[in-house]
Amino acid sequence: MRSMAVLEYIRLTPELLQGLPRDSTVFTIVVSPIEVHGQHLPFGTDIYIAEAVRDRVLSALEENRPEVCFVSLPHLYCGSDALPYPGSLSVNATALEGVLTDYCKGLAKQGFKYLVVFDNHGGPRHHLAISSAARRAWRKWRFQLIDPFIDIYRRMIVHDPELLSMTGLRPAECGDDADNHAGTNETSLMMAVCPELVLRDVREVKAAHPPKLSGAAKIVDGLGRLVEALGGKRTGADLRHLAQAIAWTGQDGFLPYMGAPALASKEAGEAMLGAHVKISVRLIEKALSGEDARPVAILEALSLLRRVPE
Question: Which domains does the chain have, with CATH numbers?
Answer without folding.
Answer: 7-208+255-307 (3.40.50.10310)
